[in-house]
Design goal:
- This protein is an all-alpha fold.
- It has one domain.
- Helices cover about 80% and strands about 0% of the residues.
- It is built from 11 helices and no strands.
């Protein structure tokens, strides 16, 4: 009699293609995506592990700095490089967003103008997946640039965030709250680099659906990108001035006015959390879902 032999310490190997780890609507092999890509379908899928490792390094460095402050001093020695790299990355990032918004609008405008949207609606994919497929086709055209931008932000972004918030709330005086704020802000900045391309692409799809003239749709989508960044930056600058004034008032207030000054400071900090942490994530997500639902209702009613 032959006994069954079971291998010990069997290690499962994930032999899936990196493309299969993405949602179906986001894959370059998706027919709805591929029909807009041309030669760009050969672009390699992104690798997220280096970005996760970089984020983990900064989180560990910041948490260690709570006990050993010199660790943060050593980690921020790359601040000079950050000042040079991040502005260049912002320029390339905005340029990529212009392209994503314009290409998404053009792809949708072509579908409406050629009356092929009904054909796409007959596929097994939902309308939301079709819209996201249009966005994905535009993002794949800029995938190499976006991955490089995200990697640069993960490496060189935290020193600038440390410099910004440590200037407002000194690390050695404010305790762990500033460190936690820096960590959350660093993660938020990276999440924005994922959500914003999707948002601008989805808004571009919406513009292309309602403005079936290719050139006008592309120009309107690019204008929306410029308006969004102008709005966000204006809110951040106004809030920064208000927060600085509240901090100065809290430091210089007399005993009689201390409670009012502290209340104003707490309100300013709450507004800062809202504008710099919640709004940059909530607004893109809401626009992605809202525009998708609006387009779905419009197309189903027509």
């Amino acid at each position: 009699m032959t006994a069954d032999v079971k291998p010990q310490n069997l290690i499962e190997v994930d032999d899936r293609s990196p493309m299969e780890s993405l949602p179906y609507w986001a894959r370059a092999t998706n027919p709805i995506v591929r029909r807009h890509l041309g030669l760009y379908w050969r672009t390699l899928p992104p690798e997220f592990e280096p970005i996760f490792y970089t984020c983990a390094f900064w989180v560990m460095a910041l948490l260690t700095g709570l006990v050993f402050p010199f660790v943060i001093d050593l980690a921020t020695t790359v601040i000079v490089v950050s000042v040079l790299v991040i502005p260049v990355g912002i320029i390339f990032y905005v340029r990529a967003l212009f392209s994503i918004a314009a290409n998404s609008a053009a792809a949708m405008a072509d579908e409406i103008r050629h009356n092929t949207m009904q054909l796409l609606m007959s596929t097994p994919m939902s309308l939301e997946q079709i819209f996201l497929g249009k966005v994905a086709s535009a993002i794949w055209r800029k995938m190499d640039d976006l991955i490089l931008i995200v990697q640069s932000a993960a490496i060189f972004g935290p020193p600038l965030i440390i410099m910004h918030y440590a200037g407002l709330f000194p690390l050695r005086e404010s305790g762990p709250l500033t460190t936690i704020l820096i960590i959350v802000m660093s993660i938020t900045a990276l999440l924005r680099l994922v959500l914003e391309p999707l948002m601008f692409g989805m808004v571009g799809v919406g513009i292309g659906a309602f403005v079936p003239f290719r050139a006008i749709a592309m120009t309107s989508a690019v204008a929306w990108v410029a308006f969004y960044f102008l709005l966000i930056n204006m809110l951040q600058q106004l809030n920064l001035q208000y927060l600085s004034a509240a901090l100065d008032g809290a430091r210089e207030a007399s005993e009689l006015l201390a409670q009012a000054a502290n209340t104003r400071l707490a309100f300013a900090i709450g507004v800062t959390v809202l504008i710099e942490l919640l709004l940059p994530l909530a607004l893109p997500y809401a626009l992605i879902r809202g525009v998708s639902a609006l387009l779905a209702r419009q197309l189903q009613a027509s």
